[in-house]
Write a structure and sequence with these properties.
With 293 residues, the protein is of the alpha/beta class. It contains 13 helices and eight strands. It has two domains: 163 residues, Rossmann fold (3-Layer(aba) Sandwich); 112 residues. The longest helix is centred in the last third of the chain and has 21 residues. The termini are far apart.
Length: 293
């Protein structure tokens, strides 16, 4: 199968990783474009392709265009490329935002191109780790039906898996992804900060807690979120929770409130697991509600 020519517009972490991975998978690249010619050149040099700060110079000759700019720039960039004649009939124009639907690049339809959203359900700390993490990741697909076969083929060639969602579900999809990834980071920041109260640096606290987190993730992967739940809520251990709340009250209202809200939700998980009775669940909920603002 002849692989389509690809143009990458946006040389940040996502665009750079996709450019390098697709190039290695045998996709010919017409070039890399970025607002910063330095950023475009850095990636283009590795692939021995053209670099530019004028996207229409590389998009016109491509079969598929990836717009991997920051979310706030996607619609504007798609519109500008279309106005300058860089989009033509038969092309597929992708964006990689998790929060926005394919309509964000809807301007390209005026030129006869298809609009599609292809979002990697993965965290991008830097280009190197992005390239390591993308294979095996899931991708959420949404957009014009005619572009779906190409999107699925690209995901397969990247070593990923895909699922299709409706445009109206993108905000909920992205909110869940933020909870699983971004808020896990916030929880680790919360926990490591508490360890500082008895003398550990944040770095030492992270090293101490990381094996626990990794073990928990393994347990979730081997069973399910509910079945992997352990700890005082899962045991219906009200006295232990009361002890937590006493010390957290001394630290601050924000910390206490966050713990209570997380605990109140966790009661539902414990009930789903079946490790506590409904009566135990009610008692735990009362403890958490009593301490919330």
């Amino acid at each position: 199968m002849v692989k389509p020519k690809i143009a990458i517009v946006g040389a940040g972490k996502v665009g750079s990783a996709l450019a390098l991975l697709l190039g290695r998978r045998g996709y010919p690249l017409t070039g890399v474009a970025s607002k910063s010619i330095f950023s475009a050149s850095r990636v283009a040099k590795e692939l021995d392709v053209y670099a530019t700060d004028r996207p229409e110079e590389i998009t016109a000759g491509a079969d598929a265009v990836f717009i991997t700019t920051p979310d706030r720039e996607i619609a504007r960039v798609a519109g500008k490329i279309t106005e300058r004649g860089g989009i033509r009939t038969g092309q597929v124009v992708f964006h990689t935002s998790g929060a926005h639907p394919a309509d964000e690049v809807g301007a390209v339809r005026k030129a006869g191109a298809l609009a599609f959203s292809l979002h990697p359900l993965q965290s991008f700390a830097d280009v190197k780790t992005a390239m390591e993490n993308l294979p095996g990741s899931y991708f959420a697909l949404e957009g014009d039906a005619g572009a779906r076969p190409l999107a699925e083929q690209i995901v397969k060639d990247l070593g990923g898996k895909s699922f299709f969602i409706a445009a109206g579900d993108k905000p909920l999809y992205h909110a869940a992804a933020c909870i699983a990834s971004n808020y896990l980071v916030s929880l680790m920041h919360f926990a490591t900060g508490l360890y500082g109260r008895f003398g550990l640096s944040r770095e030492e606290a992270f090293e101490a807690l990381l094996p626990l987190v990794q073990g928990t993730v393994r347990n979730v992967g081997q069973t399910s979120p509910a079945l992997a739940l352990t700890g005082p809520v899962a045991r219906g251990d009200g006295p232990t929770i009361e002890g937590h709340l006493e010390v957290l009250q001394e630290i601050g209202e924000e910390e206490l409130d966050l713990y209570c809200r997380l605990g109140f939700y966790t009661v539902k998980v414990a009930l789903e697991k079946g490790s506590i009775s409904s009566e135990q669940g009610k008692r735990l909920e009362e403890i958490f509600l009593r301490r919330q603002k």
